[in-house]
Write a structure and sequence with these properties.
two-stranded parallel sheet; 17% strand; binds uridine-5'-diphosphate; globular; binds nicotinamide-adenine-dinucleotide; Rossmann fold
Length: 312
């Protein structure tokens, strides 16, 4: 077994965070999960609560926190447009004040800290697929800016703390991720379509469905995060995602087929600033982390559908 570490996971009761806590527990570490339960839930971490190496603290990362830890995964931040646009000021505060508070904690404890950044730093990209060197195309005053610019500012803070205070940082840019434990009311495309299809309700396609995304199964993503944290070659940013690109129209049809649903597709207006295309260039992750996604969309969607079938 590797050295047992004390690891803080902020946003640990959320979709990705709860999978990450589980995996780190399986590896034998001690986990402190910090979450204000805005979009996460106690249900996500309920199976972990019996483990005496797991501790949950209800706390908002926009306020300082004092703990003794070896590593920090900073995931706290609502990720779905529906939720991050609900209280945009709190969203940007979570990214910016949250980053400062966690970086200060890393500084005091000499912990290594990994930031969960996002493909949204590329905005509506004009370079395709997106390599880490692409600086992005983000509207700073649009409805997605509270999230996109918050995450961009958090990256800036990470690199400034690294240069100015020699904080041991890692930065990953996560592309669209899906899987069990996504919140029912999350509003993201995979959960929305699966729930609608299982209920034989219309599939709410936004726009003409020609926009693309590239979907990564959560187990692959979590492996990528842990690989990035535990290597000493680069601080990042490194893209983590599945390069298999699909239009949202194709995704709707795949989910209808996999659920054997009678749902029709209903066409709705496209939200403002919705990116037209998104596909990670993962050459760096392949080379440095020896990481690449292993789960095919067909298998990942099946597992996610099985999960939601037990919830509705
Ligand atoms: P999620 O909404 O399920 O999880 C976010 C968690 O952070 C929730 O448990 C929420 O309650 C918590 N949180 C929010 N604000 C907080 C605050 N102020 N203080 C403490 N906790 C707070 O989303 P997710 O999909 O699990 O995303 C996790 C991280 O990964 C986020 O930082 C997100 O930006 C990033 N990310 C996710 C995706 C994706 O496709 N899922 C893509 C890119 C980046
Ligand atoms: N989308 C859709 N119907 C929905 C939810 C989302 O057509 O019910 C579209 C959305 O407009 C976007 C894509 O699916 O083009 C992915 O949306 P999501 O919110 O999951 O992630 P993001 O836009 O942040 O990549």
């Amino acid at each position: 077994m590797m050295d047992r570490k004390k690891i803080l996971v902020t946003g640990g009761a959320g979709f990705i965070g709860s999978h990450l806590c589980q995996k780190l527990l399986d590896q034998g570490h001690e986990i402190i999960c910090v979450d204000n339960l805005f979009t996460g839930s106690k249900q996500n971490i309920e199976p972990l609560l019996d483990n005496n190496r797991f501790e949950f603290i209800r706390h908002d990362v926009t306020f300082p926190l004092s703990l003794e830890i070896d590593q920090i995964y900073n995931l706290a931040c609502p990720a779905s447009p529906l939720h991050y646009q609900h209280d945009p000021v709190q969203t940007i505060k979570t990214s910016v004040h949250g980053a400062i508070n966690m970086l200060e904690l890393a500084k005091r404890t000499s912990a290594r800290i990994l930031q969960a950044s996002t493909s949204e730093v590329y905005g509506d990209p004009t370079v395709h697929p997106q390599p880490e060197s692409y600086v992005g195309s983000v509207n700073p005053i649009g409805p997605r800016a509270c999230y996109d610019e918050g995450k961009r500012a958090a990256e800036t803070l990470f690199f400034d703390y690294h240069r100015q205070h020699e904080i041991d940082i890692r930065v990953v840019r996560i592309f669209n991720t899906y899987g069990p434990k996504m919140a029912m009311n999350d509003g993201r495309v995979v959960s929305n379509f699966i729930i609608q299809a299982l209920n034989n309700k219309p599939i709410t396609l936004f726009g003409d469905g020609k926009q693309t995304r590239s979907f990564c199964y959560v187990d692959d993503l979590v492996d990528g995060l842990i690989n990035m944290m535990n290597q000493n070659k680069i601080v990042g940013p490194v893209n983590i995602g599945n390069p298999e690109e699909i239009t949202i129209f194709e995704l709707a049809n795949e989910i209808i087929e996999l659920t054997d649903s009678n749902s029709d597709i209903s066409f709705n207006s496209l939200p403002k600033d919705d990116p037209m295309q998104r596909q990670p260039d993962i050459q760096l992750a392949r080379k440095i982390l020896q990481w690449e996604p292993l789960v095919y969309r067909y298998d990942g969607l099946k597992k996610t559908i099985d999960y939601f079938s037990t919830k509705i």
